[in-house]
Amino acid sequence: MKIRRILATAVAVAMTTPAVMLSVTPAFADTKPAAQAPAKPTVKELEKAAAEAKKAYDAAVAAERTAYEAVEAAISDTAPLTVAAKAARKAADDAATAKATADQAVTDAQAALDALAENATAAERAAAEKTLADAKTAAATAATAATTAEAESKAATKLADDAKVEAFTALNKAQDATKEALAARTAADAALERARQEEEENPGGEECPDEPGLTTVVNGLPSTVTAGTATTFSVRVANGTEKDMEEVLTYASVHATDKTGAKDIAKYLKLKWSTEKSPKWQAVDGDLYIDAIGALKPGERADIKLRLDVDAKTPAGQGLTFIAGDYFNKDGSCGLTPDAAVNTFDIEAAPGKPAPKPTPKPSTSAPAAGSGVTPQGSGSSVPATTTSSTLAATGSSDATTQLALASGAAVALGAGAMFLARRRKTGADA
Description:
Layout: E1 7-9, H1 43-75, H2 80-114, H3 122-201, E2 206-207, E3 214-219, E4 224-226, E5 230-239, E6 245-258, E7 269-274, E8 282-283, E9 289-296, E10 301-310, E11 317-328, E12 334-336, E13 340-348, E14 373-374, E15 386-387, H4 398-408, E16 418-420, E17 424-425
Parallel strand pairs: 4-13, 13-14
Antiparallel strand pairs: 1-16, 2-17, 3-5, 5-10, 6-9, 6-11, 7-8, 7-10, 10-15, 11-12, 11-13
């Protein structure tokens, strides 16, 4: 018996509502939690979901472009607030110079009065005293003007800096929305592709039920991989039920697009696996199943070492891995992990290949609550081995600094947008 799997995505919420999954607006609103897709979407429904996902992605790209243009306008020397800040600064400097000149006039007038000879006439002394008094009045006026001008300069500078920070913050939200929309589009395309394949290979097959006790957890997959390198990680498959699972299969697939989301670059990424019994690396087969585990008794778990090879020609982009488990018994019973371990990562081009701008910094985020996915685990890769122990828990100026902090923030791909739906099974021999 061979169990097939359909990759589905929460973007299928578009099947029941005209609103796209992502709330991408010119104001760059935060994304909404993904709704769960139907358990068994049809190819037609997935085609509609893929179209909605593309529409959402195109809107996110346009919004990010607008935000980027706003940043360029805000940091331009000709930006109105920047021009006003510079004019206010010059006025404050001029006022400070005028104050210094007035203060010097007071000093000079006082010195002239003190230097009068004892036989100076009353008129001469009166004139010197008047000069000093006038100088003090002018100095007081200049001091008030300088204080006012300095305050106005600081206020104008703050307005200009705040506008720049606000523009960068909006750009970060737009970049966040673009990455989540790209993840949703990638997942929707993968779901549609797999559903079409399923329809061709297994029309009208019997359905395997979900088995929450069969879990998969990925450990050690980083948030960023680089072209020309190989990354080793592992997947732990556990039988948390009270029944025997005679044949356990691990489903593993990888999907990727370039930075624009328009080009599929998955062909550059290859998944391989190995175990303690079979240490030589083997490519994941065309059905995307790994048959290295065999049987799992109640409470047992098995770890499989995985390796992601990224070709040196791989352009910068984003990738997704989908890991899940299936089991079947000789009596015809079978089960599927209801939650897939969905892991997202950024792909960096090999050194010497500049990435397009603007480029969000790589980071990771946990799936949305109730999204039906298992988050990426942590820890080192370990060879395949089966135990009977208790299951492990699964589960330049101050303004410049502000701008750098604001522009550096970016959120990872929306892994919560994807999940695995029920799979069909065929009567063909494995």
